[in-house]
Specification:
single chain; 803 residues; alpha+beta; seven-stranded mixed sheet; five-stranded mixed sheet; globular
């Protein structure tokens, strides 16, 4: 991995007031400080916490995708040994528990504004901790058993008798939109809570009418799940003396979880403390509250004991929030010379039984033209209820789906027109001198050099040597294919963030911030930024997060927002820290703040040779009796609200080798170039890129939350049913970092960690189709399993034999 020097466009990032002229740690591959703790068994994950006298919760889950709950008979379960309580949806209503306030509509100024048909207010099915009316998907918790041990709770759960009236269900979004389909919520009789039109319909229709060629395809990007290494767990405790709740639960943001759970329980914000320290994988899966988090808190208060829930892997497969599941119908209008004229798309998002998040639909909607200068576009964005687990933002929320659609459509167009697919892309890529560029549905791309990325990716992939490798593969009886995909994604995320920075006399800088890492290395990369801004050693910076008694404000970690938001609020805090330091230095040196200068990280008085850095000044100040207005020493609280999106971008290429006798697909080469804006820590970004590529490859080749179409039963109960990428099936990736600075924030940061996933499905399928071109294959539906590939080849050979 190499790193391209930062390259700003004509628009430069705003100046950093008080920052040093050059950076010592920003841009350097600093080894992650948290790894020593995490790899030696000293992590603090949810299931690591235990309290004296804790009891154990087990959920009774619906075996039906759609069923009315006519009653729950818990008498036999309550009489069993060790059982402390059985709780139902009726009990939730009796105690006045509210629904989880998911608030699924994105809230920044520049998100695509989704609404019900005609612009009306959408109905988002209320998410009660336990339903009292209907079960709306397989695995939905309909009762909770609490007992002295997990084994006793499991036995009692088997004894809970739920009287179901089984109803007809619907599982595919297009089926749910048909007249007469089963209705998931009476308030939405057509099962379509969101139906919004974007773009210029008149200009789009005119361009299509005058086009020389129109290429159209329908794609279904299937449902997958995050499969985090750490199974979700929650430990709730109610202290009657203080009337205060405490929850240990890993998440994407403890502050948000606290706000939502206090609403559910109907308690004041100060009555709940949420502890979310180390999180073993997220990818969006843990960004929204799960019912079990509220249930263990509620049960603890009712029973007077701590209550713990830990999911099994089978439960996680069924009931973790899931991702993707988008039907997209796309059309591309072209001039005879290959110039793109217009695009039409209909994106139909299966949100499941409840609308938890519309981030995937919104973010994908803004990027349907991808990296290309398409003058006119029209998009219909729809969300649909079905009897399935709710979907949620999942790594690169919404962007892999639309990238897949446009990149596959371009490959198909090149084949139909008989032109080179790279030349077709090159003709239509947005030029660097067109930045900032407003795309046809209103997204304003901040910066990027898309054609340079493509050329660089082809270079590191040895694009010119492919034909020789293909001939060699053919001699061995193999089929070699290659794919290429450009991508642009957006990073917006919750707009608010707060940093509380204190320089301690003990020689450290404490930084409290409301993000919640799940493996991204925030304790290291955040420290690098603070270290450079304050000119203090990076090992002296202590990042504090995950405890809502300490962290009061924060939007969590999602949408690639964390580094950019954190660095921006740190930069915004710097002038205030310097001003505070000048006041403290003035008191120590018996002068006025106006006489204090700050240069190269040191405070000094004019005419004096005595200077202090931040740490030295805090230590010296501790020896003095500071006046009341300076009693807190060198400390500031800084808030920032950032709405402007940034648009990371890049290009990926891959080669795959197919065994035509077995359908086995082996990835032989994979290369990518990713423009993340300023890269704070290339070691971390490169690792994130590798993981993101693996995640996207997993979806392209093995992963699918398969639901049996007749019964609505998910057939993904274990790793025997759900394919995952493994180290032995992946090649060594060749990745490069491009740094075209964003003008939207002081350090020019975009985002890293999601781009690898964004391009991977398109580039893998593109390579597989290229390998199968002699069989007349136009497209392959994901996941491209060996059986699927073998059957395609077998059927093609059978057709040839007939003719």
């Amino acid at each position: 991995m190499t790193q391209q020097e930062p390259n700003s466009t004509d628009m430069k990032p705003p100046a950093l007031e008080g920052a040093p002229a050059s950076f010592r740690f920003i841009g350097k591959p600093v080894v992650r400080k948290e790894d020593a703790r995490l790899t030696t068994g000293h992590g603090r994950f949810s299931d690591d916490f235990k309290l004296d006298g804790q009891a154990y919760a087990v959920m009774v889950r619906s075996p039906y995708p759609h069923a009315r709950i006519r009653g729950v008979d818990a008498a036999r379960a309550k009489a069993m040994p060790g059982v402390l309580g059985v709780f139902t949806g009726a009990d939730c209503l009796t105690d006045g528990l509210g629904p989880i306030p998911h608030d699924p509509l994105p809230k920044t100024k520049f998100d695509m504004k989704l609404a019900a048909k005609g612009g009306g207010e959408a109905f988002f099915g209320p998410h009660l901790l336990l339903p009292a009316d209907k079960a709306r998907h397989v695995g939905e918790a309909v009762a909770m058993v609490v007992a002295e041990t997990v084994a006793l709770a499991l036995d009692a759960a088997e004894a809970v008798d739920v009287d179901y009236e089984v109803l007809e269900g619907v599982y595919h979004s297009e089926d749910a939109m048909k007249p007469g389909a089963p209705v998931i919520w009476d308030e939405v009789p057509d099962n379509v809570p969101i139906d919004t039109l974007f773009g210029d319909r008149a200009a789009t229709d005119k361009a299509f009418a005058g086009a020389d060629h129109v290429v159209a395809m329908d794609f279904h990007i299937d449902r997958v799940t995050g499969v985090p290494l750490e199974l979700r767990a929650a430990l709730g405790n109610y202290d009657a003396a203080s009337r205060r709740y405490t929850l240990h639960a890993g998440s994407g943001g403890a502050v948000r979880q606290k706000r939502e759970l206090t609403t559910v329980l109907g308690i004041p914000p100060d009555s709940l403390r949420v502890l979310s320290y180390d999180v073993g994988g997220n990818f969006g899966t843990r960004n929204r509250v799960f019912v079990e988090y509220g249930l263990v808190l509620w049960a603890s208060r009712k029973l007077g004991r701590p209550v713990k829930f830990t999911a099994t892997r089978s439960e996680a497969f069924l009931t973790d929030y899931q991702g993707r599941d988008l039907v997209t119908k796309v059309e591309l209008a072209l001039r005879k010379d290959g110039r793109f004229l217009a695009m039409r798309a209909t994106n139909i998002s299966n949100v499941g039984a409840r609308c938890v998040s519309l981030s995937p639909l919104s973010k994908g909607s803004g990027l349907i033209p991808g990296s290309y200068a398409i003058p006119a576009a029209t998009l219909r964005a729809m969300a649909v209820y079905t009897n399935t687990m709710p979907t949620q933002a999942y790594r690169s929320s919404g962007r892999p789906e639309v990238t897949f659609a446009i990149e596959r459509l371009i490959d198909i167009a090149a084949t139909q027109l008989g032109v080179d697919r790279i030349a077709l892309r090159r003709k239509n890529l947005i030029r660097a001198d067109a930045m900032p560029y407003r795309n046809a549905v209103g997204m304003n791309y901040d910066s990027g050099r898309y054609e340079e990325n493509m050329d660089w990716a082809m270079q590191i992939a040895d694009w010119t040597g492919f034909e020789q490798r293909r001939r060699e593969a053919k001699k061995r009886g193999k089929l070699l294919g290659r794919g290429l995909a450009n991508y642009v994604e957006s990073s917006i995320g919750a707009p608010n963030v707060q940093a509380r920075i204190t320089v301690r006399p003990q020689g450290r800088v404490d930084v409290i911030i409301g993000t919640q890492p799940a493996g991204q290395g925030h304790e290291t990369s955040f420290a690098q930024v603070v270290s450079d801004l304050l000119c203090v050693p990076v090992e002296c910076v202590n990042i504090i997060l995950g405890d809502t008694d300490v962290v009061k404000v924060g939007g969590g970690s999602h949408s690639g927002r964390s580094m950019r938001h954190a660095a921006t609020v740190f930069a915004k805090a710097l002038p205030d820290l310097i001003a505070r330091g000048k006041r403290v230095a003035a008191f120590v040196l018996v002068t006025t703040p106006e006489q204090i200068e700050f240069s190269d990280g040191r405070f000094g008085a004019r005419g004096s040779n005595l200077t202090f850095d931040f740490l030295e000044l805090a230590k010296e100040a501790a020896r003095h009796d500071l006046p009341p207005e300076l009693k807190d020493g060198i400390a500031v609280v800084t808030d920032n609200e950032m709405h402007e999106p940034v648009f990371p971008n890049g290009c990926a290429t891959c080669e795959v080798e197919i065994d035509p006798d077995t359908g086995d697909v082996r990835i032989t080469r994979y290369a990518s170039v990713d423009d993340v804006g300023r890269c704070i820590n290339p070691l971390i970004v490169d690792g994130q890129t590798h993981g993101a590529i693996a995640q996207g490859i997993g979806q392209a080749m093995w992963e699918r939350c398969y639901i049996e179409p007749d019964s609505g039963q998910p057939l993904i109960g274990s790793f025997m049913d759900y394919g995952m990428p493994r180290a032995d099936v992946l090649p060594s990736f060749t990745t490069e970092i491009a740094e075209v600075l964003s003008p939207t924030n002081p350090l020019g940061i975009k985002a890293g960690g999601e781009g690898g996933t964004t391009a991977a499905p398109a580039v893998i399928v593109g390579a597989i189709v290229d390998a199968l071109r002699d069989y007349g294959v136009r497209d392959v539906k994901m996941p491209a399993t060996p059986y699927k590939i073998w059957k395609i080849i077998k059927d093609a050979k059978a057709e040839d034999a007939k003719s």
